[in-house]
Write a structure and sequence with these properties.
Elements lengths: L1 H8 L3 H19 L9 H5 L2 H5 L3 H18 L1 H14 L5 H14 L5 H16 L4 H4 L1
Helix pairs in contact: 2-5, 5-6, 5-7, 6-8, 7-8
Length: 137
């Protein structure tokens, strides 16, 4: 039924991209802008398909800048949200790893042990999404 409904409405690629952009902005507003508490996994999970379908331009132009900004303000929450988001991405983060890795290394010396553990997980995720290993080293 859903396939027939989609065919009748003739969803265009532009509409899909526009909707994905709006959902990415909603993700950032909801989870990466001034969060005071860690969001529930099921709340984040609602966006997994949108994050997985994101293009390189959307990831590097929308999500990564918001993640970097939040990592500077609230690292514990930022790392948990960013780890989830980055795991969902199907793009190469080599172009942004030079921006992300210094923040991860800086937070690796954080006084809070949970933040230090999250930095390790975050570094692993970024490394797994980077095709050029020389950038990580």
């Amino acid at each position: 039924m859903a396939v027939l409904d989609c065919n009748r409405r003739r969803i265009t690629r532009e509409k899909v991209e526009q909707t994905r952009g709006r959902l990415l902005n909603l993700f950032i507003e909801r989870f990466m802008s001034g969060q005071k508490t860690v969001p529930a996994q099921h709340d984040l999970g609602c966006f997994s398909d949108v994050l997985a379908a994101s293009t390189l331009n959307e990831v590097t132009g929308i999500v990564v800048p918001a993640a970097v900004k939040m990592m500077k303000r609230s690292p514990e929450i930022a790392f948990q949200v960013s780890i989830f988001a980055f795991q969902c991405f199907n793009v190469d983060l080599s172009s942004k790893s030079d921006e992300i890795m210094p923040l991860i290394l800086q937070q690796a010396r954080h006084a809070n042990e949970s933040v230090r553990m999250l930095t390790q997980s975050m570094a692993e995720v970024v490394a797994s999404k980077t095709k050029d290993p020389a950038i990580i080293v």
